[in-house]
Amino acid sequence: MTTNLNTLSANLSKALSGKVVSLEERLGELTLVVNASDMLSVFTRLRDDANLRFEELIDVCGIDYSTYGSELCEDGKYLPDAPREGARFAAVYHLLSVSRNARLRVRVFVEDDGMPVLNSVAEIWSSANWYEREAFDLYGIIFIGHPDLRRLLTDYGFVGNPFRKDFPLSGHVEMRYDSAQKRVIYEPVTIEPREITPRSMREQNYGRS
Fold this sequence. Notes:
Elements: H1 2-15, E1 22-26, E2 29-34, H2 39-48, E3 56-64, E4 70-72, E5 78-80, E6 89-97, E7 102-109, E8 117-119, H3 128-139, E9 142-144, E10 173-178, E11 183-188, H4 199-202
Parallel strand pairs: 2-7, 8-9
Antiparallel strand pairs: 1-2, 3-6, 4-5, 6-7, 10-11
């Protein structure tokens, strides 16, 4: 496996000369980081290069790094070990080369935290369609060029992006069917906040004598 990863790493460095932000091996897998401005040309090369041939996109997921490296305290708030530097949002793409029996993880950071925008890769791999819709729905990442970018898992009237770290666990509104009005209505959340993190995680010495 090490030899295969070394060969893949060398092929990636050669094919993507000048466009590799970082290329790291960890836990038997390679993670490639590229700039958002280069992502379409990079992904096209990853698919078409004879030494790479990543024919399949098997997953796309969004990530919110705003509390990365932080510690969750008893009051439910995060205390960072050190202020995090760098972009808040990223999309991670998991690629598979069937012909070469290889896998690759590609991470692309969003340049603007306030308006997270990336290019869609749906024209490169059609399987990106629903994956990008999910990342749009849950993280608010906008994929330019997507053929049908709309919410996938939440309701069309849903407010916010529930996988962002600053989204409240109870949400902003709750939905129910009103028999008098004979329609679904939205109301402010009436659920009282409660501690859901187990004590074994909240208290460092819990259960130790």
